[in-house]
Amino acid sequence: MRIPDKLLSFIKEEKSFFISTHINPDGDALGSALALSLALESLGKKTVLHNRDRVPELYRFLPAHEKFTMSLPGNRQPLILLDCNDPGRAGLNGFVIPSSAVIDHHETVSDFGDIRWIEPKAAATGIMVYYLIKKLELKITQDMATNLYTAIAVDSGTFRYSNTSSELLRVCAELIDSGADPASIALTLYETWSVRRFRLLIEVLNTLEIVDDIAVTFATKEMFTATGAAPEDTEHFSNFPRMMEDIEVSAFFREIDGAAWKVSLRSKGGVDVARIAERFQGGGHRNAAGYMIKAAMKTAKEKLLKAIREDKRST
Amino acid sequence: MRIPDKLLSFIKEEKSFFISTHINPDGDALGSALALSLALESLGKKTVLHNRDRVPELYRFLPAHEKFTMSLPGNRQPLILLDCNDPGRAGLNGFVIPSSAVIDHHETVSDFGDIRWIEPKAAATGIMVYYLIKKLELKITQDMATNLYTAIAVDSGTFRYSNTSSELLRVCAELIDSGADPASIALTLYETWSVRRFRLLIEVLNTLEIVDDIAVTFATKEMFTATGAAPEDTEHFSNFPRMMEDIEVSAFFREIDGAAWKVSLRSKGGVDVARIAERFQGGGHRNAAGYMIKAAMKTAKEKLLKAIREDKRST
Predict the structure, then answer these.
(1) Predicted TM-score (pTM) of this structure
(2) Is ipTM > 0.90 here?
């Protein structure tokens, strides 16, 4: 990974930075932004850390997470945009800045940025920030290490996804040596479900219906009431039926107001679920997409199965 | 980790080995035994690989797994006992052998073995076999790497348990460089469930009972019949209730012949479940242990809850 010289000069020359990352931030966005902020401050710089949304409860264990502000600063500082490459993705449309640098591992969606460091092959923005900190010859503190380890762990499914490499493991080994606690981070990421959420998962799994290679599950409003779980508790529910070898698409229906359903689709890659979701005015990626539909559960399900069948026939 | 000189001489001097590992073998037992067998054969030795039980379907992706035999050989060869330290655990009671070596990372339960290499602090027997192969200056082939990576991945929860260390990540990085495919191994371990197995999991989760910080689930013989799942399909079932923040110990009871139960215990570290299992003549590690009990489910459960309460009071 080659860090642009212009980025290094920018960091060395400027005295204060406005660091922002994408809305609905995940572990990579938050962890890499926090580690960069801590690193720049150890270099004597001032930083303002911004996110349009508040830090999700799950990530409030990240050291220094309380540095994030949701409000835009009055004075204009150089921007570092992390883990996205379009200011709109960070809720910064129309926000005037004197200069800007982008550090991101996503495919380019805009040409924004005076300085652009984009590495689509990097497993996480966290690993890019790690190399940047090393290049700046800064000490990786325990707080930086915990933030970077979390960033990389989240984006690699703790070393289960295809972006896992020997390089990634070696970097994470160094982060452990710098103080990151791998078990405690994994425990926080994966084992802090409420009993209510787990009870709702069981209710949802009991609705499992398998049609060909499609798994359908759903959560009714009554199930939320009965278990006391909240709508956001259903995050990741659609991943569970993917555990089955013969399942290609997992569809999870969550009942919302107005006799409608929010549908989450997960695919193992054989079916492009973004294309399915678009038929219902939704969207997403090839492996993960979603849409809303106003219909009875039975009708909603049949429409989805029909759409997937049609899509398979056309490809 | 210091490998006993006697073990190195034993391996260099003997020409053929009988390698055996514990019944109900898991990924660490199978992967470390296979890697050791492949390594010894690359050294010009002959090996017979034994397990009393057949290789579970889940692990039939392991290179050379077809080398395992369930029958005991007629001729007596030197034994290497892996991932357990009592021949009874491998179904070898009464089997006469000329000499023996033990390689294991479990706490000692017997003093069996002419040569004993026991490292209770090692995350997996796989990492011990890795160091042994390095010490013997053998090339780690792709097949050895896949077996060792799987062994370590299974026993560290793919780097989520508290035995995960920077050393473990560095060893696994080297195994990736030697040809182990981390994403493909993770996919096989976690996303190749049969529909039958998934249906059994749902049945088991429906039995969930929470008492204080203990989660109890069970699988009856009827549930196996109704779903068509096999006993070995329940591997990892005890991990699911651990997802709940307030759960310290997860206990999963599987009904076996003779009105008895096989109990799997998982802890987040606050309770030493190996010590609990020992009260019932079982064993294991601080975070994962097991035992058998002959009793009705209700009685078996109450005995366990009582044992955990007593253990908490005494520490």
Answers:
(1) 0.88
(2) no
